[in-house]
Amino acid sequence: MVMSALQEDIAAASRAELAARSVIASKRKGILALLPFLGPAFIAAVAYIDPGNYATNIQSGSEFGYKLLWAVVAANLMAMLIQNMSAKLGIATGKNLPELCRERFAPAISVILWIVSEVAAMATDIAEFLGATLALNLLMGIPLLIATVITGVVTYLILMLDRYGFRPLELFIGALVLLIGACYGAETWLSHPAVGQILYHSVVPWVHGSNAILLVVGVIGATVMPHVVYLHSGLTQRRIVPQNDEEKRIIYRFSQKEVIIAMALAGLINLSMMYMAASVFHGTGHLSIAAIPTAYRTLTPILGPAAAAVFLTSLMASGFSSSAVGTMAGQVIMQGFVGFTIPVWIRRVVTMVPTAIIVAIGINPTETLVLSQVLLSLVLPIPVLTLIYFASKPDVMGVLVNRKYLTVAAMVCAIAIVCLNFLLIYQTLGGGI
Q1: Hey, CA dihedral for 75, 81, 82, 84, is it positive or negative?
Q2: Rounded alpha-carbon distances, angstroms, from residue 76 to 204, 264, 333
Q3: Could you say which residues of the chain have pLDDT below 50?
């Protein structure tokens, strides 16, 4: 029975590849032609709706109402551009971003990039593990340490789907993304946000004071994730292997559409997180909801236990899926930069340790989530700048080399990120604004 199920799953993955080949050969057209190409961007999108987003979005919405929605929109537009470039890199070269760094940079530089990237991956794992752990604790009353172990086991089982081919893992994680989206659709209906305020503050920038700047940097760090910039190129590099330049163009066109759909969904979920917090907490006198447990307990009397349960269900789905994706990214980062891998179960155990320590010594989980996102934002320029460098080189990208306007747009994003980070460091060191 086990072998039969394994064979069926592998056959399903093969069918998806054959369907993609049929589309490339112009034997299938229309909206359904996109289906075989859906998957990589939805896995990447998980990183854009991980528990770190919950922490920064809830804190931003409760403290400043709708005023920081523009930061979510800006970060999501950056995400679309950057993830599109990462996916294109894998299609064009058949290699992922860390592999290209190891191939074209000096060994010492590759090792330094690996160390920095691993630090970012560890910060990501902390956010993802804490999110799922908190959800299990609050929703089911499971002690935090036991919930941490359960999270590790569940995410390991999710990763084992990869043994059956790429399609089962893509479908499962895609289903979790849709579940999170459905939960926030329900939260939107229950919280009755002000539509006019959402539309206005989504396009009109506003920043006032050091807390707002910290949260803006946190929103960008929580949305544009360093590890998934590396991962997306790994997801596309050998998924559907192009046979010639024309096939590269066709596969990339479908990849573009998938990135837009997946990142738009992630952006809407992030917006709904923040405007739900703005509507429920800021507008009712709860101005300092800076912790996920507090948000859950405050939601219960305001919107009822069903709304609170939906909130935790989405958080749990986010934690499980993003933790699995974080482990996948860690494998790509290690193998690409330094050329070796470790078994998935060892990486899963090792990355549980920081979270277990945080839980055991009683550090505030939500504050840790927010600070981890700030750390990610500080690391973010490294993969973005290396991605822009390679994507603009004709000898690397061939027919899919970035056009000049894309390179300029990407550089503007990178400069904005670097400037925000310098501003954050200046402020942290006591500088006034």
Answers
A1: positive
A2: 15, 8, 23
A3: 1-10, 12
The answer to whether the beta carbons of residues 316 and 85 sit under 8 Å apart is no
Tell me the two tokens of residue 357.
């320590």
CA separation for the pair 275, 256 (Å, rounded): 28
Provide the strand spans (E) within 153-196: none
* Distance between CA atoms of residues 133 and 320, nearest Å: 9
Cβ-based neighbours of 309, under 8 Å, separated by 6 or more: 139
pLDDT per position as a tens digit, 101-153 = 999 998 899 888 888 888 777 777 777 777 788 888 888 888 888 888 888 88
* HEC per residue, the chain: CHHHHHHHHHHHHHHHHHHHHHHHCCCCCCHHHHHHHCCHHHHHHHHHHCHHHHHHHHHHHHHHCCCCHHHHHHHHHHHHHHHHHHHHHHHHHCCCHHHHHHHHCCHHHHHHHHHHHHHHHHHHHHHHHHHHHHHHHHHHCCCHHHHHHHHHHHHHHHHHHHHHCHHHHHHHHHHHHHHHHHHHHHHHHHHCCCHHHHHHHHHCCCCCCHHHHHHHHHHHHHHCCHHHHHHHHHHHCCCCCCCCHHHHHHHHHHHHHHHHHHHHHHHHHHHHHHHHHHHHCHHHCCCCCCCHHHHHHHHHHHHCHHHHHHHHHHHHHHHHHHHHHHHHHHHHHHHHHHCCCCCHHHHHHHHHHHHHHHHHHCCCHHHHHHHHHHHHHHHCHHHHHHHHHHHCCHHHHHHHCCCHHHHHHHHHHHHHHHHHHHHHHHHHCCCCC
CA angle, 264 as apex, 260 and 265 as ends, to 5°? 125
Task: State the Cα–Cα distance between residues 357 and 183, nearest whole angstrom.
Answer: 31
Asked if 172 and 317 count as a contact pair (C-beta separation under 8 A), the reply is no
The pTM for the full model equals 0.84
Q: Which residue has the tokens 């191939």?
A: 103
Contact status, residue 83 vs residue 321, Cβ threshold 8 Å: no
Domain 39-428: homologous superfamily in CATH: Amino acid/polyamine transporter I (1.20.1740.10)
